[in-house]
């Protein structure tokens, strides 16, 4: 997902693989035949008797964490009646809300949906749905919204923040506020010019930690592109590589330097979904007949995500919303103090410990 959307773009980015997976997962249970097969394959999941319970289990477990709020909603046209079985699956297993809307009034319909998203993301995600993307042929809009707000287990002291250089490439830099903290953290190191360091910064109290941010820092100032290639562009998935890296971390005292940053991203994800093998879901051959009572001929017209993250001395606030629109068819301690100085482009993720779910993923190229 990251490879197709953000790798090698040299732009700051934040993506929520989890948000996209949930909204496509919700749609896949309304699909039948080859459409269902394509969506399941694209999502790398298999139909099973426990799959719906698996979704429910992950959503419920993530929702127990005080830092993360998750909301799903299906908006459907006034002339559409949902299939009762699909409605039950959506409500019981995805904790989805349901709402009817008049898509023949695009500005009012967009406002109603955008207000819902804004309310569920602490006003961080606005204008997800564009009025000009709606018309009388719009029949369903599926939305997932998530909001994360976590305080560092070991906060950065504001008085320790000092201006310093952040290198945009090997030679050019800009002066930015750099936060500083010294404490014991889990860390990974890979030596060499093409190597990198990974640092885990946990959220929550010392006794209760559900999430961590992981910072991926290339050894070279201009090494982020090769690090992205190493992490995302090989046969082994990022989740597998990430899991192996986490298993190889060691706890040590670290002097951490990290810039404050704030990023907003908007992603049109139709092409990504097609590259994942879901082309049929966007075509007139799409079969979402399990979604509505009268088996209306529906296809996916648009998949869009907006995401936001802000990192400062106190912690992190992040949010994302993904919308999927349907129309009629016509992811022992080593030697003393280590130094982890994020004064150059780096990657980051926010991971839920218990489920190993990567909720957010992104890069910082410039400040």
Automatic annotation (TrEMBL):
The keyword ATP-binding does not apply. GO terms for cellular component: extracellular space. Keywords: Protease inhibitor, Serine protease inhibitor. It comes from the Eukaryota. GO terms for molecular function: serine-type endopeptidase inhibitor activity. SUPFAM superfamilies: Serpins (SSF56574). Residues 1-367 form the Serpin domain. Belongs to the serpin family. Pfam families: Serpin (PF00079). This is Serpin-Z1C isoform X7.
């Amino acid at each position: 997902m990251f490879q197709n959307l953000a790798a090698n773009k040299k732009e700051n980015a934040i993506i929520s693989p989890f948000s996209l997976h949930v909204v496509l997962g919700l749609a896949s249970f309304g699909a039948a035949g080859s459409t269902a097969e394509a969506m399941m394959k694209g999502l790398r999941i298999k139909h099973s008797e426990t799959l719906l319970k698996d979704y429910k289990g992950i959503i419920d477990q993530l929702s127990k964490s005080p830092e993360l709020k998750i909301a799903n909603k299906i908006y459907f046209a006034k002339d559409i009646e949902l299939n009762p079985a699909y409605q039950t699956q959506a409500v019981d297993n995805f904790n989805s809300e349901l709402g009817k809307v008049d898509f023949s009034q695009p500005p009012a319909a967009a406002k109603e949906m955008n207000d819902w998203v804004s309310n569920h993301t602490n006003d961080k995600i606005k204008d997800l749905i564009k009025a000009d993307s709606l018309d009388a042929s719009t029949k369903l809009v599926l939305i997932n919204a998530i909001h994360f707000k976590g305080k560092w287990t070991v906060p950065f002291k504001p008085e320790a923040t000092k201006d310093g250089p952040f290198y945009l490439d090997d030679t050019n830099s800009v002066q930015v506020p750099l936060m500083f903290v010294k404490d014991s953290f889990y860390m990974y190191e890979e030596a060499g010019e093409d190597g990198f360091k990974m640092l885990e910064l946990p959220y929550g109290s010392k006794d209760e930690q559900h999430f961590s941010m992981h910072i991926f820092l290339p050894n070279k100032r201009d090494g982020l592109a090769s690090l992205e290639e190493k992490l995302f562009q090989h046969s082994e998935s990022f989740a597998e590589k990430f899991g192996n890296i986490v298993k190889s971390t060691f706890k040590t005292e670290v002097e951490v330097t990290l810039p404050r940053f704030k990023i907003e991203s908007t992603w049109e994800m139709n092409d990504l979904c097609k590259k994942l093998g879901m082309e049929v879901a966007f075509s007139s051959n799409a079969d979402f007949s399990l979604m509505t009572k009268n088996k209306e001929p529906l296809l996916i017209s648009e998949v869009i995500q907006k995401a936001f993250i802000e990192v400062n001395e106190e912690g992190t606030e992040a949010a994302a919303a993904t919308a999927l629109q349907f129309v009629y068819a016509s992811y022992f301690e080593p030697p003393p103090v280590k130094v982890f100085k994020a004064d150059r482009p780096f990657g980051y993720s926010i991971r839920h410990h218990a489920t190993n779910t990567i909720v957010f993923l992104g890069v910082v190229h410039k400040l």
